[in-house]
Protein 1
Amino acid sequence: MEQISKFKEMLMKQKAYGYVLNLAGWDSNTEAPRGAFARRAEMLGVISGELFELNTSEEYQEVVYGLFKKFNELDDITQREIKKAKKDLDKIIKIPKNEFVEYNKLINLSQLVWEDAKANNDFNAFKGNLEKIVAFTKKFVDYYKIDDHPYNVLLDGFEDGMSMKEYDEFFNTLKEDLVPFVKEVLNSGKVLNDAFITDFYPREKQKEFAEYLIDVLAFNRDNGLMKESVHPFTWNTHSTDVRFTTRYLEDFMFSSIFAAIHELGHATYEQQIDPKWDDTYLDGGTSMGIHESQSRFYENIIGRSLEFWEVHYPKLKEIFPEQLKNVSLDDFYRGVNKVEASFVRVEADELTYSLHIMIRYEIERMLFSDEVKVEDLPEIWNEKMVEYLGIEPSNDTEGVLQDVHWSVGMFGYFPTYALGSAYAAQFYYTMKKDLNIEEIVKANEIKTINNWLKEKIHQYGGSKTPKELLVEVTGEEFNPKYYIQLLKDKYGKLYL
Amino acid sequence: MEQISKFKEMLMKQKAYGYVLNLAGWDSNTEAPRGAFARRAEMLGVISGELFELNTSEEYQEVVYGLFKKFNELDDITQREIKKAKKDLDKIIKIPKNEFVEYNKLINLSQLVWEDAKANNDFNAFKGNLEKIVAFTKKFVDYYKIDDHPYNVLLDGFEDGMSMKEYDEFFNTLKEDLVPFVKEVLNSGKVLNDAFITDFYPREKQKEFAEYLIDVLAFNRDNGLMKESVHPFTWNTHSTDVRFTTRYLEDFMFSSIFAAIHELGHATYEQQIDPKWDDTYLDGGTSMGIHESQSRFYENIIGRSLEFWEVHYPKLKEIFPEQLKNVSLDDFYRGVNKVEASFVRVEADELTYSLHIMIRYEIERMLFSDEVKVEDLPEIWNEKMVEYLGIEPSNDTEGVLQDVHWSVGMFGYFPTYALGSAYAAQFYYTMKKDLNIEEIVKANEIKTINNWLKEKIHQYGGSKTPKELLVEVTGEEFNPKYYIQLLKDKYGKLYL
């Protein structure tokens, strides 16, 4: 008992450090001026160092390993906490503090370097930082002394229990079943009335519609907010402070709409987690894949459905009467689901999206198998774009430099995006058994869907693993057939 | 030497904790959703507690007191650092940690309570918190065991070397020389063409002009930003990240203009501090009074001058062509300097402003002399408003609840506002000897004024005391005659 309360006490301290670092991250990503970053890296380096001390202190090790030895005497929740805590501890204690601090400083600064490199289409300006980040990551994985392929260690870090074996299987299924279908769709010769997509939509007006969407999706404004950033994301520390961003491209309104709905999906998950997990090791969403399943569910399954736009297209037309004057609901719905080979992942359509992820997965897989070097990435990137999507980026800004992830050391994260999309489909076919989803969307009662997801998934926070959730909610293990079925049904009707 | 580097090392750690707490404060004041605050108080309570441990650790005491014993062997800068560090240490080590943490939680939450109370015109809803804050403050001052009146201890905390003796003298001079003059002005019967002041000025358009002012005042946008908040303020941690806020009242445009110029004054001070002080105990502006002298200098002496509006009024007219159609430059200038008895300090004109401060000073003086109770404040407030300004607030929102300061435990701060205004005048008459200020403002070359202030005041950060700065820059000690002279000259011409 004493050890448990000691564990809780130390955990609260760790959470407080994580909290302020998180808050600084939100600031860095949404408003901090450029001049802030050098000093910030110093200051946050100190705080990360302190957190590292807490996370690796002998006292903490004694408590966690001590409790792990008495595993069978612990209640179910404490067992889950200690299991997770031990898994993290096993890794972090292997890393020398000075390297940890140095790494954190590096990634704090690299995001800015990447932003500049992307703005100036200058991969070389970013290459040095990326090499350092990759080298650190490899060294850290090596320190862990886990008897597995380095990339498996990284993959498991973002999605409990996933390895190259499962992902290879998943992506191979996509290659076999989806890639030929995508080619069929791309070659269908279907002509859309879609000039409106790239019309001019003033920023402020887009913001007005994004604010409207917040209420449509029943987001709780007392416990969160929406802001703007270059790369949309959701930020959270606890269920009563959940924030997200979107971005406004004046010549591509869909960007703000679907980024907002996507992030609202993440945000709804976080807002609906039972606050009882806040003080435990099981707070927050359970994994990146499950998180992404929620954002994709709202973005694609709800947000790109005909029923959704039957209700909300009039509002959009009211905000943009000129731009949408000659655009029927059917045109708009087809525009929202327009399939095309494109360069930028975050703007990719629902159907080709996972091919963008496959490219990143394969590149990371090679990188951490020492089959390629950082300097080769631009070329490999472009080759794979040609292979899977039949198009070649004309510069690195729309190629290898497009994503923020690597600049902040997130390797092994990308595949959870495709996995999440597939989870979403599996959840969808289960939800259909309980709810008339189409009618609910048409009635603008999304709260009913939120409630279902809360009951089945959200409330549990990190207290169930992704695998447990899938089996408990859908009655079976992960099965990509639902994803392929959903895509073929929808896009077969639209294009073939 | 070893002790010095130990001191530096511990100082950096303290700075890092201060940094993240500061950042959280910025977030709390500019965007955090309401739901964030309960959890935030817990989390920041932990971090404040950790900082408290650092600030009071035996190791730190040994270093600071150890170095203080060798005071004469230290170089000038280290002497100044140790002197300041010891002064803070002497106080903080007297406070029990649990009380310190509890106090910090209390003030983190009280601001929200105050906001609600103000919004609902409900002093009773805030009274309990305020009583607790006052009780804590008294207890803390008592712990310090400084042989002085409690209010003197608080006053000195915000302005090194100031006590009731000096402030009484200052405010008595104002009472004798200024109050009769203010009455004369208020009774002059002068009629202004000032209906435009309360016309409707859309928020977005006001923001456009505030953005314009940022460039007029040569603020460095790479090292800072402007945002919006209920109570305008400047926030800073180091010269390359200086932020400030303004607020937009659509029926009172002057609020955003002069809040922006005022805060730009604070921000310019911070941006112009030599970064060499960042890693020392002498970072930031030297005192609240000197800080306020800079904001008041820009706001009143520059921002409310005829020359300033000769240059910038055309821009304002361009943004608000309808509202300012029939308003001449002379009308506008008189409007900007309109004197009236009003309720709200932050909107008060230059001439009556210090009377608002006097009221707060006298109330705090009584509160910390145990002559009044918190529950009596609304009544006393209203009585003093009648006494000095001849008007009585009709509710507590425009009375005792108007300022944020007490809700965050800042007692002894208010008088620095009046003191700063008087410092500003003293600096002004010195600057006039070197620069043709009127010509510079007319030529829109405010950078020249910034440079003068940088050279004489800003660059030194906290390395000189307010008294030193005054003597070195102006050649004499603080003398309120300049303030009175400036006000009488300006408002005599305008009204008498």
Protein 2
Amino acid sequence: MHAAFALKGLVVDTPIAGEIRTREGYLVCEDGLVEGFYDSLPGRLSGIPVKDCGGRLILPGMSDLHLHAPQYSYCGTAMDLELLDWLERYTYPEESRYADLDYARKSYAFFTRDLLHTTTTRAAIFATIHPEATLELMRQLDEAGLGAYVGKLNMDRNCPEHYSEGSPENGALQTRRWLEMCREAGFARVFPILTPRFTPSVTDAYMQKIGEISREYGAAMQSHLSENLSEIEWVKSLCPDAQNYADTYARHGLFGGACRTIMAHCIYCPEEEDALMKRNGVFIAHCPTSNENVIAGIAPAARYLRNGYEIGLGSDVAGGHTLNLFAVMASAVQVSKLRWRYVDQTEKPLTMAEALYMATAGGGRFFGRVGLFEPGYCFDAVVVDDGATRNLREFSAPERIERCAYLLSSRVEAKYVDGCRIL
Amino acid sequence: MHAAFALKGLVVDTPIAGEIRTREGYLVCEDGLVEGFYDSLPGRLSGIPVKDCGGRLILPGMSDLHLHAPQYSYCGTAMDLELLDWLERYTYPEESRYADLDYARKSYAFFTRDLLHTTTTRAAIFATIHPEATLELMRQLDEAGLGAYVGKLNMDRNCPEHYSEGSPENGALQTRRWLEMCREAGFARVFPILTPRFTPSVTDAYMQKIGEISREYGAAMQSHLSENLSEIEWVKSLCPDAQNYADTYARHGLFGGACRTIMAHCIYCPEEEDALMKRNGVFIAHCPTSNENVIAGIAPAARYLRNGYEIGLGSDVAGGHTLNLFAVMASAVQVSKLRWRYVDQTEKPLTMAEALYMATAGGGRFFGRVGLFEPGYCFDAVVVDDGATRNLREFSAPERIERCAYLLSSRVEAKYVDGCRIL
């Protein structure tokens, strides 16, 4: 067998939402894909290199469906405002600094270094409106071996003059120029994704052009949806002829279907938005840490998950305060309990097994066959050393994962993407 | 000067709730107390030993007003039930194991080791009903140099037969025996506190005896109050003649005033309970992580703090999932935002400065002059290395504290209690 190897140890994943599968044995990689799992290596595989992971946890690499890389520089601060004021006061001033390529290079180096040390192997990332700085981020992520979709932002209204693309025409021009730069760069695992920031930042004329570019390039898209009540009212007043917030994207072909789409948040979606998301296979990025921090609310993630929507987790740095998806898993469970207590008792709170599913198999689906240890899936794996959480009890694998999520003292010891060891 | 020394560096505390005071200079300790703060050491102090803390943060040691040491063994697991079921299913079976002194010794060693490495210098702790095991915990904490009030639990109803004191008479006997053991042990900074688990666990007859013991020994008390709606209904049915939940303690002299008292949670207190807490100076232990995990709700902590109640933070391990009060601070801010969003818009969310106040000055008041760097206060200090949170930006001291709370990657490098270095 060509380029095959195995990880030996405690292999954990979630083929079914809400159930944690634990197997002890050999997880075999061949040509970057999961070849299979074996209690003991069969004869034809004898002789392949085996890395013994001892008692550590072997988990699928996690997928972060939503985060803003330029905001990482102030992550964990500036947590005192609601969304729209927060954008004006903290976000736009910081993001506009990425016009300076040198600043971008330095800042993204911190971001990439820290992301590499988390459990995340794939991410969908917002950058800024600057093509060169965005390309620099993509280059750094690719060199680190991470998998990502990265978006140069589209913005031509309701933003500071010095942090705007100015017009639909210039925006489209810059976007095409950036897409060509990406094509030329030919990164291994990092791809462009169209990223209209959110409807308030993008005129209808520009949104239409982004739809055209999506069809021209076959490009995926990501944006925000129904995060905050004031935002929803604002969208209504900006787009009085749209049927709802989702329609401001959908009427330009930017809401799932042929255009693979991630929508972050989805806290206050009316029924018809929900229906459209489901029909079009739109991925929901559930971002519980951010939704607390910018005082947005609590999304009905349990309902989405249990009703067959495409849903994964997003750290949403820097509305979210951490890149660590273990922390986001814990937060997802916790806020779902408060939602049950205060908002809606028709859906039981999320379980940690469901949170792990969203962080791995659920979000991974956006990136292809990612997030499970099944034959044919990308061999994305993290080896987690949770020795610091040990005490006198014996914990089961699901309990150990729960403790990784709550205690946040585990360490990613090794990390593989497409079978390549990157950490 | 006798036994004086100074810490040099960035000295941060909160003399006023909601305001962070940052001073750069020399914090002088003499005879275990804060002697003063100086921009530069005056002549009469020249020659005292100075520890240069470089750019690290020098914070008051934090006070954890509520936690269950025997539950630490399953901390971060078993998070799928509401309070009353959670007690039956997870808590009582584990706590009953502490009848075995050897088990207690081993388990408490993990607890003490881990508590030592947090920012906590003082804690109010629930143990189990076992006098010997409780004394063992007290001995370990005292040897580690930590300050604590520790309670052997009082329980004589609604608990498993093998985990009950059986009768008010035996309970009172065991409690007096334990108090005598404590007196004899003569710990330096660890003291007993009367601990009726909560009203459902303690008959009126036993509660009355506990009140008598409190007056006899001048002992403080700690318990739970109005955490969960089912619990409140249960108390009403158990004590139909009490005016409210608080009165089930107060009518026996166990609710503040001469009996210094901590009540954990206080989520659903009616007005008259609030009024009694305020009048009697009852300390509220606000436990936001636990209140999420056991699906209790969100306490009106901002209202309590801003209206002059005595209030501090509690990790409430193992309803809470971490001993780290930085994490509890972040959680306090986060859930207060959800409370504002979903429960009550009359009180703005807590700020991180208020959370730091509760963790230090607010909770510290229960232990005496603790939690501030003012002359005459106990010299309880932690030196926090937050180097792992650095990036290309310059962060102010309040921002660095915010990042310690959210990113949870700082490290306690040194720790002093009463001027003694214990880490």
